[in-house]
Amino acid sequence: MSFSSDVKNEICRKAPENPKYVLAEIYGFIRCCKQEESGELALYTENKQVAARLAEDLLYCFGIIAQVSTRYAAKHKRAHFTASLTSTEDEKRLTKLINSFKVESDGGAAAMLRGAFLASGTLTDPNKEYHLEFSTQSEAQSEYLCEKLAALGIGAKAAIRQNQRIVYVKGREQIADFLGHIGAIQAYLAYTDVVIEKDMRNDANRQTNCDSANISKTVKAAGEQIAAIEKIKAANGSLPEELREIAQIRLENPELSLREIGELLTPSLSRSGVNHRIKRLMELAAGL
Question: What pTM does this model have?
Answer without folding.
Answer: 0.67
